[in-house]
């Protein structure tokens, strides 16, 4: 009986370990995939069809879209503000 | 009683820290770059509620603070087993990630950025957002939900108001436990279709962190906090979409906090100590006899699982019209149609602006139809996901697992450390009592003694 319980426990541990490794691999892949996206995410004029605030976009500093201008100015402003505080 | 005095201390500490940090918060208030324009039409521009962007360097500082806070929370929960230290760290996180950083960037909201990036190849997620999304999940995968215990500002603000927690009946907790899955599914559907970031839009506490939100959101936040005085962390347990992912990761965790540092003698002292109902009690020997029944109900549920998935998908895909109305383009197209048919006599600011732009109406309607189609397709996935979760929950309920001693439920336990102090073996670890005295705790409880004897037989 005890042997059976141990066997089940071992099987469960093995499954857990395998799924954990898979999940960890998944995170690495996801992080890599999204991280790579950063480098080629430069938007040329009028190419952006994103429906979200520009401040949440990693391409903001390089973006040529007119609608990104206020956020870029704000970012410059934030930078200046931090410097001023220092 | 114990919770009451602790919570009084909690509230006191929280108010104190809040007052201490109040002056510094002024410095980080939202900044208007220019004076507000004076519109002739009488339109007044609403106040800015989102904080100004931070410099890149300071965003990396946030990541560093997150990493250190996660490491400390794990150390306090696993190694020191100190509720007090976890509490102090929780107050710090509330002040830093909540009031100082105004709840942004947060791991919960990052679900949407990541989802949006997956469905929109043109969107680049900031590196800090990727890290805020992944890091707590990786920590949970190894150490359990220490992020919830002391790092998440949304959890912290609710934890601070837990005054007299009552036990939510198990059946109700199971039913309410489906809501976070629905919320997560809806959030992903909304970002996939470009309808918006609903997790941020309906974040109940962001208004407190930023000292400003719509009246409805303030009421929503206040109600959750009020409810939180008697139902511990209601948002975390019955709404938080990130909690779903943390729950899954925590079930796989390599190391997880335990109630007892050494052994369990089933003294039952910890039984009622968890305000989140995350303690598993040893189950009755009668379970041993019902194996055949279990196998039958398991088989029936397995057969029904595809039905749940298909049925769920069909039902939610029927809701495409009402769901897609949340998308700006669809609601604009509908409003224009109403105005054209004369069913709406008052012209809205949006339709006026749209007409002034000179964009052809056919283009707008085509766009609206394609968005609605996306919602229909997404509805199949969302409904299928909800059906799958329902089926799996039922399957999980029908499996009778043998539970030999009191232990935490690794999925729902938030690693808060409240239960540690209830265990006599924790007192032995701290050198407050001897092992013999701890063992006697179990022997003193007649029911525990009886259970022990049964177990030994
Ligand atoms: S550590 Fe886990 S089981 Fe213990 S009180 Fe906290 S949430 Fe409950």
Describe what you observe in this structure:
The complex is a heterodimer of chains A (86) and B (457). Chain A has 86 residues and is an all-alpha fold. Chain A folds into two domains: 1-37; 41-86, no CATH class. Chain A contains two helices and no strands. Chain A is rod-shaped, with a radius of gyration of 24 Å. Mean pLDDT of chain A is 71; it is low at 41-46. With 457 residues, chain B is mainly α. Chain B folds into three domains: 7-28 and 58-256, no CATH class; 257-282 and 403-457, Alpha-Beta Plaits (2-Layer Sandwich), CATH 3.30.70; 310-398, no CATH class. Chain B has 22 helices and two strands. In chain B, strands 1-2 form a two-stranded antiparallel ribbon. The longest helix of chain B has 38 residues, at 361-398. Chain B starts with a helix and ends with a helix. Residues 19-31 of chain B have low confidence and may be disordered. The interface between A and B is large, with 38 and 38 residues. The complex binds iron/sulfur cluster. The site of iron/sulfur cluster has 14 residues of chain B, from loops.
What are the main properties of this structure?
heterodimer; A: 86 residues; mainly alpha; 0% strand; B: 457 residues; Alpha-Beta Plaits; 3 domains; 22 helices; globular
Bound molecules: iron/sulfur cluster
Per DSSP, the total helix count of chain B is: 22
| Spans of at least 5 consecutive residues with low confidence of chain B | 19-31
For the biggest β-sheet of chain B, the strand order reads 1-2
Secondary-structure content class of chain B = mainly alpha
Number of domains of chain B: 3
Q: What can be said about this structure in brief?
A:
The complex is a heterodimer of chains A (86) and B (457). Chain A has 86 residues and is an all-alpha fold. Chain A has two helices and no strands.
Protein topology:
The complex is a heterodimer of chains A (86) and B (457).
Chain A: H1 2-39, H2 69-85
Chain B: H1 2-27, H2 56-80, H3 83-100, H4 107-119, H5 127-143, H6 146-150, H7 153-159, H8 170-176, H9 179-192, H10 198-201, H11 206-210, H12 215-228, H13 234-238, H14 241-251, E1 279-280, H15 291-317, H16 320-324, H17 328-341, H18 349-357, H19 361-398, E2 407-408, H20 424-429, H21 435-444, H22 446-456
The structure holds iron/sulfur cluster.
